[in-house]
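Hello Y.,

Per our agreement to keep a running log of every chain we model this quarter, I'm adding this entry. I've kept the format consistent with earlier entries: sequence first, then predicted structure.
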Amino acid sequence: MALTKEQIAKHIAKELRDGYYVNLGIGIPTLVANYIPEGINVVLQSENGLLGMGPFPFEGEEDPDLINAGKQTITTVPGSAFFDSAMSFGMIRAGKVDLTVLGAMEVSERGDIANWKIPGKMVKGMGGAMDLVASARNIIVAMVHSNPKGGSKLLPECTLPLTGVRCVRKIVTDLAELDITNEGFKLIARAPGVSVEEIKSKTAGKLIVEGDVPEMIF
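Predicted structure for the entry above:
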């Protein structure tokens, strides 16, 4: 059974480490803020000028003046700091972000990512993605395994304009967790009830399967 967006985010949250500065991209990545493990202290950074982003507010408690880079209403935590976007991007370009979680339209087996433009269609634009993929110490992609037409989003080569080259370390989709290696996509874990065969059939890039691949646990 394919993972929900919330389950993808919850699984990625296991990658957080105490003391990390983390940037969460638009879409599924923003949900990671709701699943920070107990006892782990991380500082969430939003490129529109905020350190110390909290989980999404409950309905009726939204503050329209508090938004993330995707224009979603958010909360803050004690010690939060606000600043302009120039300072925010200075932090990113100086390599101060330990982990970035991004959505993607395509990822290649070498770790290239395309997540900002579909020729001929209106999209929101690149935002801070190009700075993040060039500067973050670790990049995890959160996305669904297949595009709306059923085609694989995990490819030998990206067909869309690239955001970054050889920068992605890990991918968590609705079907699987995969690491990027020198040989291709390495299958680390399966969504509960999803077979290795199904993942193989929906992965266009080179897929490495070693031994018994465990199911994710929630």
